[in-house]
């Protein structure tokens, strides 16, 4: 099992706090997708580079991000 980051897109407001703390700069706001509330949710651009530090999940004010380490 590899590292996994799950973003609950229906909760995510696209605030960008997770993107600002990601040391690998792989958390990004998906400008091509909208959730039911009209926000662009966060996503991982390259899961292979993820080190599962969970900084994104820690910073998320809505607890929309879950990180699982291999």
Provide a descriptive summary of the structure in words.
The chain has 70 residues and is α+β, with helices and mostly antiparallel strands. It has one domain (4-65): Alpha-Beta Plaits (2-Layer Sandwich), CATH 3.30.70. Helices cover 14% and strands 20% of the residues. The chain has helices spanning 17-21, 55-59; strands at 4-7, 27-29, 42-44, 65-68. The longest helix is centred in the N-terminal third of the chain and has 5 residues, at 17-21. The chain is globular, with a radius of gyration of 11 Å. The mean pLDDT is 96.
Write the layout of secondary structure elements.
Blueprint: E1 4-7, H1 17-21, E2 27-29, E3 42-44, H2 55-59, E4 65-68
Antiparallel strand pairs: 1-4, 2-3
Helix content percent band: 10-25%
Oligomer: single chain
Largest sheet: 2 strands, antiparallel
Number of strands: 4
Give a quick precis of the structure.
The strands form two sheets. The protein has a two-stranded antiparallel ribbon with strand order 1-4.
Write a concise keyword list for the protein shown above.
70 residues; globular; two-stranded antiparallel ribbon; 2 helices; alpha+beta; Alpha-Beta Plaits; 14% helix
